[in-house]
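Re: Re: ligand-bound prediction request (bumping)

Still looking for help on this. To restate: I need the protein modeled with glutamine bound, output as structure tokens. Inputs repeated here so nobody has to scroll up.
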Amino acid sequence: MDLYSLTLREAGELLAKKQVSSLELTSATLEHIHRTDASIRAFVTVSDETALAQARQADERRRRGEMVTPLTGIPFAVKDCISTKGVRTTCSSRILENYLPPYNATVIARLAEAGAVLIGKHNMDEFGMGSSCENSAFFNTHNPWDLERVPGGSSGGSAAAVAARMGTFALGEDTGGSIRMPAGFCNVTGLKTTYGRVSRYGLIALVSSFDSIGPMAQDAYDCASVLQVIAGKDPHDATSLSAPVPDYLKDITQPVKGFRVGIPKEYFQAGMEAGVESSIREAIRKLGELGMEIQEVSLPHTKYGLPVYYLILFAEASANLARFDGTRFGLSVSEGAENVIDLYLQTRREGFGAEVRRRIMLGAYVLSAGYYDAYYLKAQKVRTLLRQDFENAFEKVDVLVAPTCPTTAFKLGEKTADPLAMYLSDIYVVATNPAGVPALSVPCGFSNGMPVGMQLIGKHLSEDLLLRLGHAYQSVTDWHKMRPGMIQ
Ligand code: GLN
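Reply:
Sorry for the wait, this slipped through. Here it is.
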């Protein structure tokens, strides 16, 4: 098998036995990217030189037997909203096109400490706003399963890269589905972590009360290995949780008999692609075969999930993006400006794309006097109801199972003219973020030749259980092992 297509676990074993070096693994991955990414376009930046230097350092660590971890020497890349010191971090926006962060995000610092090798930065919807990667200011990313289709969004570059085996794992960011939805569209495994489980320091904020960083990889086992390194309290992020980080691999192979699975009836409504529904039903049957107890549950406020999510998103995003004004970071369009207001307006007009401007305007609107109570405050109240829906369900069951998306990957251009149709594709992934709960998307079949994702949603800090259930499912199915035709 080609070195670049190994799982993290397989590559780690070869590295540990010294049957392969990180330099060989990293070089093979970079060569594969340079051959393959011309048609997929998952990367905004590929950092060959720093990657090779880090690979040599990893090999040196291993030679000396110093600070060797399961991630030492493993090549990875991250969504381009995660700050990397000295490596361009763009959020796929013109406004940050040439921005070089002066520091590393905590997740990057922790992975570097573990000896993992950063190979580049992934394309995304501008500032994380989108469900197809078509809102990138630079170029579209293509789904490796069908180049005419989208990879999903907003971590579309990360999902496409992992699906095409361009990097052993990735870090994505999920504000309202951005890890899970593209994972589902591209046949990879992606974990949205509990809010606060992973430090957001150095993550360029979209919605500060929703954003969570998480791993994307070939399987749940690999996601567990990555989470182990990035999880935990960070003095730089006051919202990071101090709850102890469990050993995510300790019980991952344990049986799952007796766990209670809830099927939220509101997540199986008209409009779902037939092949998606049959794949999910079949997967639920498999969970039953593994000894899990299946029952129907209700999340009665589900229909408010999308409006609550988008209203709060508009408000927080418009506030967060106010910092990009031409005086501090990135682009500054000063030509012809007579005063500082002109500078702000020119920079923001040129620097932000249409979707970002739309959301900033909507955010300013829902926060303005007279509308604040009607929209923003109301949304925050209904957010509590969404959270209570999950709390009530988790009194009866250990995990909820649902489709990740009502359809498989759609065609490039199919929804770009209709923002509402685009927002609707997020229907099953947005309620978790206002509630802060974790969710794992695992491959569970195909519909019309395109991958289908299944979501396992758990209570706060139940990542260990989600990964264990995901691993159990992946031990009796092969969906996650299937690779797109172009990567055989
Ligand atoms: N589709 C969501 C949106 O457009 C994704 C946001 C995210 O998770 N970054 O807001």
